[in-house]
Amino acid sequence: MQDLGINVLFQGRNFIRLLNGLWITIEISFLSVILSMSLGIIMGMIMTIKNPVIKIITRVYLEFVRIMPQLVLLFLMYFGITRAFQINLSGEVAAIIVFTLWGTAEMGDLVRGALESIPKHQYESGKAIGLTNIQIFMYVIMPQTIRRLVPQAINLVTRMIKTTSLIALINVVEVVKVGQQIIEASRLTVPSAALWIYGTIFFMYFIVCYPISRLAARLEKAWKN
């Protein structure tokens, strides 16, 4: 039987190495998402404050992070800031910082949009029945905000997981980097290794991201009305 190259996946510890690389990807994504969601909620609430100075600062931060490609932010953090200020950061820590900065900006804008989308009469109705400002926020505004926010936040999570593939370029040995190492080592003996390795990585990302994406779609459909 002709060897189609798939055997490269199971030579030595190649498949285990890919799984270990995927675990590093998941770890970095998980920490970045937790930090981003927490800080993003705070930032979103700050962005609704009617203060021109706060609005300018948060807008500049948001636009800077949005305009700058994530790859450039990674290079700036890992090769620029750490070298310029003699800071010893591993690639994993630099990646978590960059993805947290990016995720916080995106999550903050989502929270701001969700809070500002609540009609004014919802606040007025709460006051009319004698609720305090805190009670209005907790029992009237928050439930509606969460319903509008969660599907978008989950989509942001999947984008963050997929974008972690860039960290292979700052020498983090995650799943894509491991795949590149296997392909390079098999370049002469298995010319079609790239097809099988990158195909496997595709399915690994799919297995991680598809359930999250489906959850967002189900929540959006369930809460549409």
Walkthrough of the structure:
With 225 residues, the protein is mainly α. It has a single domain, classed as MetI-like (MetI-like fold). Helices cover 76% and strands 0% of the residues. The protein contains eight helices and no strands. It has helices at residues 14-47, 52-67, 70-84, 91-116, 120-128, 133-163, 175-185, 193-222. The termini are far apart. The model has no long low-confidence stretch (mean pLDDT 89). One of its GO terms (cellular component) is ATP-binding cassette (ABC) transporter complex. InterPro entries: AA_ABC_transptr_permease_3TM, ArtM/GltK/GlnP/TcyL/YhdX-like, MetI-like, MetI-like_sf.
Oligomer: single chain
Instruction: Quickly give the CATH architecture.
Output: Orthogonal Bundle
CATH class: Mainly Alpha
Head-to-tail CA distance between termini:
57 Å
Q: Count of helices? A: 8
| Beta strands, count | 0
What does the average pLDDT come to?
A: 89
* Most strands sheet: none
According to CATH, the fold-level topology is MetI-like fold
DSSP helix fraction = over 70%
Shape: elongated
| Estimated radius of gyration | 22 Å
Summing up helix and strand content along with how strands pair, one would put the structural category as: mainly alpha
Beta content comes to under 5%
- Could you name the ranges where pLDDT drops below 50 across 5 or more consecutive residues? none
Write the CATH homologous superfamily: MetI-like
Number of separate structural domains: 1
Secondary-structure element sequence?
HHHHHHHH
Protein name: Amino acid ABC transporter permease
Transmembrane segments: 21-49, 61-80, 195-217
InterPro entries: AA_ABC_transptr_permease_3TM, ArtM/GltK/GlnP/TcyL/YhdX-like, MetI-like, MetI-like_sf
Membrane topology: Multi-pass membrane protein
